[in-house]
Amino acid sequence: MIAEDIILKPILTEKGYDGIADKKYTFVVAKNANKTQIKMAVEKLFGVEVKSVNTMNYQGKYKRQGRSEGYTSSYKKAIVQLTDDSKAIEFFSSLT
After folding, report:
1. FRET label pair with 65: which of 9, 21, 93, 96, CA 20 to 30 Å apart?
2. Radius of gyration of the chain (CA)
3. Mean pLDDT of residues grouped by 10 in the chain (96 residues)?
4. DSSP alpha helix (H) spans, 12-96
5. Taking the alpha carbons of 8, 12, 13, 16 in that order, is the dihedral positive or negative?
6. How far apart are CA 37 and CA 20, in angstroms?
7. Parallel, antiparallel, or unpaired for β 7-10 and 50-58?
């Protein structure tokens, strides 16, 4: 897998914005990607040094709307912590 296939999109929530000051960034990643692949993909795409990666798997929630029912999509989330001497990711710095 290439880096663009691993990092799918950023997660922009209040809790995610709080981590930007500590150089913690949250992404939706490919379900079959492991921590090492996520670390290398972030370093390649954004040109930063990664200290640690935490991952979580989310199952889809059961939803109903009228007679229609089903599950939302399941996904994998990664929280990436950068090193202290690493530069910040420019995409997130414009949001704060």
Report:
1. 9
2. 15
3. 92 90 93 96 94 96 95 96 89 70
4. 14-20, 35-46, 90-93
5. positive
6. 22
7. unpaired
Rounded Cα–Cα distance for residues 5 and 29 (Å): 8
Kindly report the number of other CB atoms within 10 A of residue 9's CB atom: 9
> Quick one: tokens of 83?
């090193």
Separation between Cα atoms, residue 47 and residue 30, nearest integer Å: 20
Residue 80 Cα distances to 2, 28, 38, 58, 95, angstroms: 18, 11, 9, 17, 17
Instruction: Name the pTM for this structure.
Output: 0.88
